[in-house]
Design goal:
Layout: H1 10-19, H2 33-53, E1 62-65, H3 71-78, E2 86-90, H4 93-102, E3 107-110, E4 125-129, H5 138-151, E5 157-163, E6 184-192, E7 211-218
Parallel strand pairs: 1-2, 1-4, 2-3, 4-5
Antiparallel strand pairs: 5-7, 6-7
Bound molecules: S-adenosylmethionine.
């Protein structure tokens, strides 16, 4: 019997094969009211985060890590970014096929477990939209954070949007971006109560935040 080394991020690939089988669009806001609310709150916070960063947006290069089928990448187009400024990366080839089909002008990269073809300090704005909440393994979270730390130059930003807690299948722990992103300083934060979601550990709607946007700046 061979002892095959574990592929980085295999848990995510396995869980998403169930959550969003190839060719699927599980989180289409047209079909799920809660997703519509989620996207609206996310778009609001992304615009606010970009304003808070006070960056020059015209030439800003953006990498959407965990872009899935590209919905979170295409959101930047709504805010006036050019497709050539945008890149997405994911570990799921099927989701990337959809992403490329939806917008051929955005570059989408498949991560096959051995890193990203991006040089150190090459990306001044990284976006992470609902990614860590489905990554269970501490080693995978650390690797993901390390890769982001390498490609963001001093003064560059990380926009982090997610549930307040990981999903149950990913551990259900409280998500605190600063725990992983050493070398980044918090700039701005905005909690959100997304209608239709119950706060972690509850079943009823309340005014307890369900999601949070955090903007971090690389020191
Ligand atoms: C809930 S989906 C969100 C997709 C997209 N960001 C959006 O908002 O529509 C989470 C995505 O993160 C991806 N992902 C998780 N860990 C990853 C990693 N280490 N590298 C790249 N993508 C990852 C998953 O494959 C999945 O497509």
């Amino acid at each position: 019997m061979t002892n095959k080394p574990r592929r980085m991020f295999q848990q995510v690939i396995d869980d998403y094969a169930r959550l969003e089988p190839e060719g699927g669009d599980t989180w289409n806001p047209l079909h799920r009211e809660v997703e519509l609310e989620h996207r609206v709150e996310l778009l609001r916070r992304l615009a606010a985060g970009l304003r808070a960063a006070a960056v020059e947006t015209e030439s800003l290069k953006i990498l959407d890590v965990g872009c899935g089928n590209g919905r979170s990448t295409r959101m930047y187009l709504e805010l006036g970014f050019d497709p050539e400024q945008l890149m997405g990366v994911d570990v799921r080839s099927g989701a990337l096929r959809t992403a490329r089909h939806m917008h051929a002008g955005i570059q989408f990269l498949l991560d096959e477990g051995d890193g990203w073809p991006l040089s150190e300090g090459a990306v001044p704005w990284v976006s992470l939209c609902t990614v860590f909440s489905s990554v269970r393994d501490a080693e995978d979270r650390r690797e993901l954070a390390d890769r982001i730390r390498r490609i963001v130059p001093p003064g560059g930003h990380l926009f982090f949007w997610d549930r307040t807690h990981a999903l149950d299948f990913a551990g259900g722990d409280v998500l605190v971006p600063s725990d992983w992103f050493e070398g980044f300083a918090p700039v701005w934060e905005s909690p959100a109560v997304v209608a239709g979601y119950a706060a972690h550990g509850t079943t009823e709607a309340s005014d307890v935040p369900t999601h949070r946007a955090t903007l971090l700046r690389r020191c």
